[in-house]
């Protein structure tokens, strides 16, 4: 099963490392990353594999949101199928 992780916040050193370290602690594998900095704001989308995650997806989303708040970031995790359904034209 796959999920989409979105990260937004003021740019600073170590955002990618911090988010990836947190995901790795839950046994989440990063498959693809797209990131950019626009006018001092960092934005990132990640496709991740969650089939081996050691907590339920809803709990992962909650934990990553909490970690984001601690890091001054907005982090959201959604199952890939839900993300795609929400973003269909």
Question: What does this protein structure show overall?
Answer:
It is a single chain. With 89 residues, this protein is an alpha+beta fold. Helix content is 37%, strand content 39%. The chain has a 4-stranded antiparallel beta sheet. The model has no long low-confidence stretch (mean pLDDT 93).
Short description:
With 89 residues, the chain is α+β, with helices and mostly antiparallel strands. The protein has helices at 15-25, 57-71, 80-86; strands spanning 2-10, 29-38, 41-49, 73-79. It has three helices and four strands.
Major β-sheet strand ordering = 2-3-1-4
**Poorly predicted parts:** none
Alpha-carbon distance between the termini?
Answer: 23 Å
Can you tell me the overall shape? globular
Number of strands: 4
Radius of gyration: 12 Å
Question: Which class of secondary structure composition applies to the elements?
Answer: alpha+beta
Query: Count the helices. How many?
Result: 3
The portion of residues forming beta strands comes to 35-45%
Give the overall average pLDDT: 93
Q: Sheet bearing the most strands, described?
A: 4 strands, antiparallel
Percentage of helical residues? 25-40%
**What's the helix-strand series?**
EHEEHEH
């Amino acid at each position: 099963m796959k999920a989409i992780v979105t990260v937004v916040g003021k740019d600073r050193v170590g955002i990618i490392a911090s988010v990836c370290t947190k995901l790795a602690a839950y046994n989440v594998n990063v498959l693809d990353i797209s990131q950019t900095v626009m006018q001092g704001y960092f934005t990132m989308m990640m496709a991740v594999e969650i089939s081996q995650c050691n907590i339920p997806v809803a709990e992962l989303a909650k934990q990553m949101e909490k970690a984001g708040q601690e890091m001054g970031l907005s982090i959201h995790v959604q199952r890939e199928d839900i993300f795609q359904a929400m973003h269909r034209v």
